[in-house]
């Protein structure tokens, strides 16, 4: 089987993961060595907004290369007590390197803002895809889900828990393959430790986050289950008029299994939606191997997938490298610059090559 896209050539999965872990440890500690200015870019359009800032499609003037640049206000970061969160995100982004995970190209800052540039993923996100195409067939859904499995296996091997796996955070490149993005809630977590932060998207939260007794990588596998259910059914498994009723349904695993789901998919979903973390698939002593060996994924050769040897079920219809038609239209506003160094010391370590 020839590569469908890209030049990835992974022959031994375990050796590859060890190599990626070593690279991660080196890169996350690298020192700043490149300073840029926002005026070196032409702003095309705002393509995303969120609590962490806005994302702008920009073109670098000297080589006309396009990037998605996330712009965060330093003042806002300090005011909302999010400085540690942004530092964690930067430390992780500058060190990760995997076919199905977004990567940081470079970052820089000025007196008011912190900028980090990532590849522009023209295909939009999974939310846009199912909005346009409707419910995905299980075969099509499996293509995206399998890549997320590999992305989470990679991140967990590095000791990174994502904590916000959802369809809006799965982007498609122009060839139809995915990248997991948005590391705003991500955290580097030693495998023997737990974290207690209440964070993420409510409908995707795991029981262990809600009850606040500590959790680890298990929470990502619960969210993964929600994602699979959603793209195959068109709706979320856990709902509630208010957060309290939503959280009760999540803790009690109260949901309806769609009758059109195959037996293999129902089996996987049932094993993912288990409140007892020690019994949840992906969290036992065999780890992710149980998920990769699940009958629903039996048709996939995981190494071939990582080498991008499968033809994507959907190729984004884009015209040229600046086509942003698959992104929502966000009104743009001008950046406000200051001659004063605002809380500069707090952000001094944020630049990277």
TrEMBL record:
Record GO terms (molecular function): ATP binding; cAMP-dependent protein kinase activity
SMART domains linked to this entry: S_TK_X, S_TKc
Keywords, ordered alphabetically: ATP-binding, Kinase, Nucleotide-binding, Serine/threonine-protein kinase, Transferase
All residue ranges annotated as the AGC-kinase C-terminal domain in the record: 298-353
Enzyme Commission identifier(s): 2.7.11.11
PROSITE patterns named among the record's database cross-references: AGC_KINASE_CTER, PROTEIN_KINASE_ATP, PROTEIN_KINASE_DOM, PROTEIN_KINASE_ST
Annotated catalysed reactions: L-seryl-[protein] + ATP = O-phospho-L-seryl-[protein] + ADP + H(+); L-threonyl-[protein] + ATP = O-phospho-L-threonyl-[protein] + ADP + H(+)
Family annotation (InterPro entries): AGC-kinase_C, Kinase-like_dom_sf, Prot_kinase_dom, Protein_kinase_ATP_BS, Ser/Thr_kinase_AS
Enzyme class: transferase
Keyword Nucleotide-binding: yes
TM helices/strands, residue ranges: none
Family: Belongs to the protein kinase superfamily.
Identification of the protein by name: cAMP-dependent protein kinase
Organism, as annotated: Rhynocoris fuscipes
């Amino acid at each position: 089987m020839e590569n469908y896209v890209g030049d990835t050539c992974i022959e031994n999965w375990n050796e590859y993961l060890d190599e990626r872990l070593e690279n991660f440890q080196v890169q996350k500690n690298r020192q700043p060595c490149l300073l840029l200015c926002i005026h070196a870019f032409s702003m095309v359009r705002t393509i995303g907004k969120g609590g962490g800032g806005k994302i702008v499609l920009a073109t670098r003037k000297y080589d006309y290369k396009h990037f998605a640049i996330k712009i965060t206000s330093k003042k806002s970061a300090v005011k909302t007590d999010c400085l540690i969160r942004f530092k964690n995100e930067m430390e992780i982004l500058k060190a990760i390197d995997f076919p199905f995970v977004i990567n940081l190209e470079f970052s820089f800052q000025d007196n008011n803002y912190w900028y980090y540039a990532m590849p522009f993923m023209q295909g939009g996100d999974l939310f846009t895809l199912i909005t346009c195409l409707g419910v995905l067939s299980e075969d099509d859904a499996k293509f995206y889900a399998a890549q997320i499995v590999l992305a989470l296996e990679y991140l967990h091997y590095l000791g990174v828990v994502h904590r916000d796996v959802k369809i809006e955070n799965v982007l498609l490149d122009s060839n139809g393959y995915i990248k997991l993005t948005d590391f705003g809630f991500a955290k580097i977590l030693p495998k023997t430790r737990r974290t207690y932060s209440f964070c993420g998207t409510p409908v995707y939260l795991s029981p262990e986050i809600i009850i606040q007794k500590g959790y680890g990588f298990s929470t990502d596998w619960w969210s993964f289950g929600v994602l699979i259910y959603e793209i195959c059914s068109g709706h979320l498994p856990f709902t509630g008029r208010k957060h309290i009723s939503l959280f009760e349904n999540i803790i009690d695993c109260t949901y309806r299994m769609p009758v059109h789901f195959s037996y293999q998919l129902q089996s996987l979903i049932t094993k993912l939606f288990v409140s007892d973390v020690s019994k949840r698939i992906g969290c036992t002593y065999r780890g992710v191997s149980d998920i990769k060996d699940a009958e629903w994924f039996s048709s996939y050769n995981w190494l071939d997938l990582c080498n991008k040897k499968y033809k994507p079920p959907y190729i984004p219809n884009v015209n040229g490298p600046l086509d942003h038609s698959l992104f929502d239209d966000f009104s743009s506003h001008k950046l406000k610059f200051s001659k004063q160094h605002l809380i500069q010391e707090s952000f001094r370590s944020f630049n990277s090559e």
